[in-house]
Specification:
single chain; 186 residues; alpha+beta; PH-domain like; four-stranded antiparallel beta sheet; 4 helices
């Protein structure tokens, strides 16, 4: 253990500010992780394509039109599912404003993540316990923590630029692995 990381918890909270682009990027990555074409759909597309190609080879005259239509339908389904839905989701995401996140400071403590926010002349303090976090994602650009406190759901998008000696991602990962389990991949 080096002198740099002797104390793995926050002595001074760090600023937590996320731009609109970072929020949109995280939302899009989460959506992409849920929009995967399943094995069943791949199998159906493969069978339809194989039968259509066999029909083109074995059938003659106007009967092959149905085979060509089936191939076009499979290709259209794939293109719409892969590119069309993403275009639509991006368009819909831009219709709704993102929440501006400024003036918040976060810290890592043995019991959870502590949030401090100025409210007028006073400073409000809240904590998200490690046990309140029910899933987390470890993406290359950020950590996403989904939590539920007093019946309300929330999430923290923690950009990798926040990783510092005052806000150790390694400590966060250690607690999350112990309390929540392995991260979900995006």
């Amino acid at each position: 253990m080096t002198a740099k990381n002797l104390y793995a918890y926050t002595l001074q909270p760090v600023n937590y500010e996320i731009s609109e682009e970072e929020q949109r990027h995280a939302q899009l990555l989460i959506w992409r992780s849920t929009n995967k074409i399943g094995t069943k759909a791949w199998a159906i597309m493969g069978v339809v394509l194989a039968l259509s190609i066999l029909g083109i080879i074995l059938l003659k005259n106007y009967s092959t039109v149905f085979c060509w239509i089936a191939i076009v339908c499979v290709v259209l389904y794939f293109l719409i599912r892969k590119f069309g839905l993403e275009w639509y989701v991006k368009r819909k995401m831009n219709e709704f404003p993102v929440q501006e996140i400024k003036g918040i400071r976060l810290g890592v403590q043995p019991h959870g993540i502590v949030m401090r926010q100025k409210m007028g002349l006073q400073e409000g303090v809240g904590a998200i316990g490690w046990k309140d976090i029910y899933e987390w994602y470890n993406a290359p650009e950020f950590l996403l923590l989904n939590f539920k406190v007093k019946g309300q759901q929330g999430a923290y998008i923690l950009p990798k630029r926040m990783d510092s000696k005052n806000f150790s991602f390694e400590t966060i990962r250690k607690h999350l692995r112990e309390e929540v389990g392995a991260p979900k991949e995006l």
